[in-house]
Amino acid sequence: MTASRLTALLFIVSTLLGSSHAARSAGCGKSLPAQQPAGQTYQTAFTQSKGTSPSRTYRIHIPSNYDENTAVPLIFSFHGHAQTSKCQEELSQFSNEAFNPNAFAVYPQGIDGTDGESSWQGAPYAKSGVNDTGYVQDMINHFNDIYCIETTQIYAAGKSNGGGFCGTLACDSSLSKQIAAFAPVSGAFYVPGSSSDACAPTTIALTCNAGRSPIPIIEFHGSADTTVPYGGGGSHDQCLPTIPHWVREWSTRDGYGLTNKTTNLYNNQVQKYEYASGSAFGTVTHYLTQGLGHAWPSTSPNSDNSAGTYFNATPLIMQFFGSHTL
Ligand SMILES: *[C@@H]1O[C@H](CO)[C@@H](O)[C@H](O)[C@H]1NC(C)=O
Ligand SMILES: *[C@@H]1O[C@H](CO)[C@@H](O)[C@H](O)[C@H]1NC(C)=O
């Protein structure tokens, strides 16, 4: 074979390999809905197909450079307990095009729980029968239908109860196969059916029904979090695992074992723990920030933290999402 033929063959093989993972949604080629200009956030009501609470809302930010013929990623960002989709947009900054120039950012709104405050499925205060995983499934189907989405690059991030819900989605047999990577921040990983009295946070069994393996996870937590303590424990009559236990269980479930590479950052004020080796290195990653409370890490003050901290979590999440596709 001549060199030019070999080059041509390699090109075809690499093109096939590259495109075998890409998947454009049915919305490619369709114009944006008239009331939804690119570069803006749009809030809308949404009717869930099944479930006890079919009437929902979400906010969606459409990238300024949106082109109906170019498939782009989509990022869900779930708010915390008693919060709103609008607060979550401001907190997580996925509509900030300095952080996220290309992907759709979606901020769904939770249904009021047993305490009258907005919440997500899996938390002790969520109303039983609310099918939030079904809501996410319906939104994915809807977005794929009307926008040009790269369906191998749908992601989920969330704060606190919204971070816990990322864990619920990662352990759902179906959604875990549609969402490429998960980024809980200060996640409240309640163990359904557990009790606060007999809570053993370092060893409590964490059941999971993920539909694929490995699942990429990046978690951020503050050592001074008093709402979802790093060391876990009883909360709202249920048991929260320690964050290291939750992270290590993911590494084990993903097949990487317990060993991590620890990197000290910012004068030892931030620890980065990365699991797995070789090309999978860092597929499970955890950032611990010393002295930080129940906050989305940000160098500038935000609604969680009036002082700001050492780094911005959002660009790290974007980088992590960018290196993991289905
Ligand atoms: C939740 O909704 C999904 C999608 O509509 C459906 O497949 C699932 O059966 C529902 N779960 C429950 C418990 O109703
Ligand atoms: C990471 O590894 C170090 C060294 O073995 C260990 O002390 C630490 O507990 C581990 N951290 C986590 C979060 O697993």
Major sheet strand order = 1-2-4-3-7-8-9-14-13-12
Element-level helix/strand string:
HEEEHEEEHEHEEEEHEEEH
CATH superfamily: Alpha/Beta hydrolase fold, catalytic domain
The coarse silhouette is: globular
Bound molecules: 2-acetamido-2-deoxy-beta-D-glucopyranose
Classify the fold: give the CATH topology. Rossmann fold
Helix content: 10-25%
Strand content: 15-25%
**Whole-number mean pLDDT:** 93
Enzyme class: hydrolase
EC number: 3.1.1.73
Subcellular location: Secreted
GO molecular function: feruloyl esterase activity
Protein model, in words:
The protein has 326 residues and is of the alpha/beta class. The protein has one domain: Rossmann fold, CATH 3.40.50.1820. It contains six helices and 14 strands. It starts with a helix and ends with a helix. Bound molecules: 2-acetamido-2-deoxy-beta-D-glucopyranose (2 copies). The site of one 2-acetamido-2-deoxy-beta-D-glucopyranose has 7 residues, from helix 3. One 2-acetamido-2-deoxy-beta-D-glucopyranose is lined by residues 244, 247-248, 260, 262, 273, 286.
